[in-house]
Amino acid sequence: MIKFENVKVAFKQKNGEFVAVKDVSLHIEAGDIYGIVGGSGAGKSTLVRTINGLQQPTQGHIFVDNEDITQLNNSQIRELRKKVGMIFQHFNLVSRKTVGQNIELALKIQEYPKEKRKARVEELLELVGLKDKLNAYPASLSGGQKQRVGIARALATNPKILLCDEATSALDAQTTVEIVDILKQINSSLGITIVFITHQMEVAKNLFTKVAVMSEGEIIEHGTTYEVFANPQAELTKKLVETQIDIPDKIISKTQGKIIKLTYKGNRSVEPIVAYANKKYEVVLNILHGRIEYITEKPIGVLVVSIIGEAHQIDKALEYIKANTEGIEVIREKGSEVA
Ligand SMILES: Nc1ncnc2c1ncn2[C@@H]1O[C@H](COP(=O)(O)OP(=O)(O)O)[C@@H](O)[C@H]1O
Ligand SMILES: [Mg+2]
To answer: What pLDDT shows up at residue 309?
Structure first.
């Protein structure tokens, strides 16, 4: 559905240029809910804005639905935008127009037949569960309702692609879940390909089928959300995923010995592995924290344990654990009190 080929976006500056997107190649397939995560200033918005012609690439090619959109004239860009809807963090609704008029405006801009507009507005409001808000003004709506209007407006002309730039970042946790559910539903019932930028990891884990991690204009890691988050390779990705497991510093500082984090896939328990390592090697393993997380509805287990013992015994125990789990990460090498 979307293909980036060596895309570069540079902004001219007084002394030279600033390269916001460097040589990005990426393939987003029809039906994906493709997420782009990364720190502020990474180039996420700039990259995504090339998909609907809001931003021209400096180099490279972008194909949308098999058409090269890199060099379009204005009327071709208008056609492209019928295929590519977009929603924003701050909704961007016209405040002096009603909900119905906001959506109608989008239909008008995109030359939707006048006599069909009213019915289409109703259909769209039905889709996002806001039928009773047809004549309400944006100021009287909650954040979640405003974003529903944003979604209805973006879907006005039946696009094949929906771009979402931090679309849930201004919403509270509960409303975020509601919007995520609507987007999932739209993706599955209408088959729309969704490209979603966010810094909210909860959204990423629940919504995205695939994810790309962006840093300093480059895509440093990409794949299915489960694979990328269950087995992160890049340091940045590890950091993004890691903040999900918080153990109070107080507990860490009170605990003796080495502290490690094990990850394991699926529902199976690793407690027997820990128990066996305890028995087989001259070490004392202690479970500090354990939980099962769900990434795109598939489980991944995380267990934090402390280990006390002689160095070579610890090494052997870790080797055994490593062979039987998905991965080990040392959280702290040694305690303040030497074991
Ligand atoms: N129109 C512009 N002119 C100059 N620099 C820009 C422009 N748009 C974005 N940038 C710069 O490009 C970098 C990437 O911006 P952006 O794509 O918005 O990042 P993100 O969405 O990941 O936070 C930032 O350093 C930003 O300041
Ligand atoms: Mg941005």
So the answer is: 93
Low-confidence ranges of the chain (pLDDT < 70): 242-246, 267-268, 335-339
- CA 96 – ligand 2 centroid, Å: 27
Does 13 contact ligand 1 (Cβ within 6 A)?
Answer: no
Residue 160 CA to ligand 1 center (angstroms) comes to 26
pLDDT at 335: 61
pTM score: 0.84
d(CA 42, CA 150): 25
Counting ligands in written order, which one lies closest to the CA of residue 38?
Answer: 1
In sequence order, the 6+-apart residues with CB closer than 8 A to the CB of 291 are 245, 301, 302
What's the confidence (pLDDT) of residue 267?
66
> Residue 116 has what pLDDT?
97
Is the CB of 217 within 6 Å of ligand 1?
no
**CB of 161 within 8 A of CB of 51?**
yes
- Coil, strand or helix at 226: helix
Instruction: Give the C-alpha distances (Å, rounded to integers) separating 171 from 103, 167, 270.
Output: 21, 8, 37
Q: What is the side-by-side strand order in the sheet with 33-37? A: 84-88, 161-165, 193-197, 33-37, 210-215, 218-224
Bridge partners (DSSP) of residue 309 are 283
Rounded to whole angstroms, what are the CA distances from 2 to 83, 156, 157, 216, 227? Answer: 12, 20, 19, 22, 21
Which residue owns the Cα nearest ligand 1 atom 14? 43
Contacts of residue 285, defined as CB under 8 A and 6 or more positions apart, other chains included, come to: 274, 277, 278, 305, 306, 307, 317
The CB of 17 under 6 Å from ligand 1? The reply is no
Kindly state the greatest CA–CA separation across the chain: 81
CB atoms within 10 A of CB 76: 13
82 C-alpha to ligand 1 centroid (Å)? 25
